[in-house]
Amino acid sequence: MEVAQKKLKIPMRFEQVDGSLLGGTPVESITLPIKLEMGQHWEEIRFIVIPNMREEIILGLSWFDKWKPHIWWEDGFRKVRLAMGPLPDKGMNNIITEK
């Protein structure tokens, strides 16, 4: 994924449960704010850029704690219900389906 990035003043380390570094090296960059859209949910967000990863995006625990999405793992589909963005909302009436 090609997005504008900003170099961190101090590299960050993300250790996995086995003690190895996530991505193999310390993180040196974050993205500039970008718009994340899923259905009618949207928000401005920055991502930490971790080198050597297969996944393009990983949403962390702080994101899940903030938005509290409802996720169903049925029939090979991921169904996610999120509040309409950009602010957390109690009116969670939008279901997004991905293959």
Automatic annotation (TrEMBL):
Listed name of the protein: Uncharacterized protein
UniProt-listed Gene3D superfamilies: Acid Proteases (2.40.70.10)
Organism (species): Micrurus spixii (Amazon coral snake)
InterPro entries linked: Peptidase_aspartic_dom_sf
